[in-house]
Amino acid sequence: MADRAELEELVRLQGERVRSLKQQKASADQIEEEVAKLLKLKAQLGPDESKQKFVLKTPKGTRDYSPKHMAVREKVFDVIIRCFKRHGAEVIDTPVFELKETLTGKYGEDSKLIYDLKDQGGELLSLRYDLTVPFARYLAMNKLTNIKRYHIAKVYRRDNPAMTRGRYREFYQCDFDIAGQFDPMIPDAECLKIMCEILSSLQIGNFLVKVNDRRILDGMFAVCGVPDSKFRTICSSVDKLDKVSWEEVKNEMVGEKGLAPEVADRIGDYVQQHGGVSLVEELLQDPKLSQNKQALEGLGDLKLLFEYLTLFGIDDKISFDLSLARGLDYYTGVIYEAVLLQTPAQAGDEPLGVGSVAAGGRYDGLVGMFDPKGRKVPCVGVSIGVERIFSIVEQRLEALEEKVRTTETQVLVASAQKKLLEERLKLISELWDAGIKAELLYKKNPKLLNQLQYCEETGIPLVAIIGEQELKDGVIKLRSVASREEVDVRREDLVEEIRRRTNKTPCIC
Is the N or the C terminus of the chain less surrounded, counting Cβ atoms within 10 Å? Predict the structure, then answer.
């Protein structure tokens, strides 16, 4: 039997013979006979087992973004970046992967979600898990002790994705951080103000910002009888209270983490409390908590923080919540998390949180972990959960059946008659050189109706129409797509007229 290569060549030659006979318009019987030979050869050849089926899909926990999705994302990014810049932040960037040792031991139980890369050139590498640890490395490496920065980039987590809820393995983070030695709670208050400004501007619904302090948590664990060695793991359990009931959290503490039931009950008495500055005052008088130095410092700072938040006019958005723990190991002081609220089912009930959309806190010891001399640089920051926000905005636009523009084209250069391609090209070049966003159809002689329909489909607001009469008169006919109103504009005035009109055109988002 012929080997596969020979059979493939015979199939190819027989296929060419069949095509040749068809071109020569040979008799049907002759073509049929040769086709039968071709099918017989193909049957002999059989499937190529060396060629595996190639599945076209994105990797688990990732997705592609269409022009429509990207238009929404760019508008959300624009709101966030404008806010960061309004507060005086500079922008930085860091590599998408770091040395593995840079990331190891910074995320507590979540360290298992770090993506490790294969050994390349003698270096053990991992994809960055967040933007905070790379920022701390950047500060230590460049010996910086003072900076206000923002950083927007992708991070990676080997998590179980929940795509419909905006939970991915590859996703963007938008971080704002203030590094430096300053008076207590002023930078912290500004981070909370930024969080509230962004969430209000995006109009994604009512939200609540939960605030706590790691020193209060650690003090609470101490007075409740939690062994020092279990602080971080118990902290991780408490952090699940926004997703599961206290009973489930208690069962995890006792059953999986070996905490005594009575100690868990004492923790439960504290972590189920939430309120405002009055709760801070109440806990400052708590006979056990007030005797713990760490807790006392945390409560004192929270009281000061509420004073600043009141001056910023956002205290009504803030709740002191003792169940907020933020599982990451590097937090040292104030921690916070913004959740969207859904309307309660029964009048008078508490609004329910439906998911975190921003979070952050103070991490004064992280930079010192990288500095050879252990020099600390106090830091506080906020991270906006943009993937969740993108999902919410996209769902809102779909529900409203609102059309999203995927380009920013201001004007289409069109022609009313044939043989005007050269004139269209000359005019569009003038507009591009003047900074006008313009398009034309890639046809020599497009129909005017087709050009106008293209504008309606893509949302282009204006059409600059060239015709033989317009060329003689030295004018361009400028048409508003929405109103269908047309006006003749002198060619030298066209750029200014387009700018004047498009500056008034509202942005669809």
Answer: N
